[in-house]
Design goal:
The protein is mainly α. It has one domain. It is built from 15 helices and two strands. Helix 7 crosses helix 10. It is globular and about 55 Å long.
Amino acid sequence: MSSESAATLRGDIPGRLNLALLAGAIVLTGGCLHLASNGGLLALRIGAAIAFSFFNNTMFSLMHEAVHGVFHRNATVNELAGRLAAGFFPTALSLQRAFHLAHHRNNRGDCERFDFYAPGENRVLKFAQWYCILTGLYWIASPLFCLVYAATAGLVPWTKLLAPDDRLGRQTSAEPFLNSLRGVSPMAARVDVATSIAIQAALIYFLHLDVLGWVLCYACFAVNWSSLQYTDHAFSALDRQEGAWNLRVNPIVRLIFLNYHHHLAHHRHPGAPWTELPGLVRAGDPNPSFWSVYWRMWAGPRPLPGKNPERA
């Protein structure tokens, strides 16, 4: 478990519940993938893909717990479960952990305020990044980078590709994310990538998946997952801990996402298990609805109003 996660750990880690949820998510996501490929009617296949986009977010949330070391108290179980969940994204647990903890360190800083542009920043690039997030193209970057990194780690000096304070590297957040690779063993990354490839291959073989069914499922998941990844931060305070929202959503949706919408509570207490987050929401916290923030995002990034803009 990382020191960043353990520092704010609260309550008991629901290890048995998480294992049961992982098993259930495997069955449900597998069923949706199979139906999307073998369901006959296009409407049925699309419906299965939409359902997959939600249940695979449960899988992502379980991986997120493993990233913070709070999926299970047994470290071996935590890592194995995290790798299994990562295979459904698909991504590499070791790389996901490095990048996600870098996100916690840099949240709402100059390199991670995609919703505001400052003088001197490339506005075309800023808007391109923004709409890649909203349309789901952002998701593609993770599996592609994992494959490239696994093939080139040790051959390409990834941590030295960008000069310190490189403007492009900071605006795209590439600089801090590449720097975070210093803490990742290339062998561990390769093992994680190989594990995810094996999981995807097993899904395709045993569930008799076709290209259309797989693409439908992951396209829906990409949009669903990617949109939330910045709706829970967009136009919030430019503060490392306070720069997030506790978003108001349907209770069933929040349960499927394992309280991921309580994102401000998570940033204040990154080592708290998902079951503890509702109790960590403060009475005075802003509680905008997911849709109120999401629809405003489509208007694009805004000019930076000052060093400490008020919450949206």
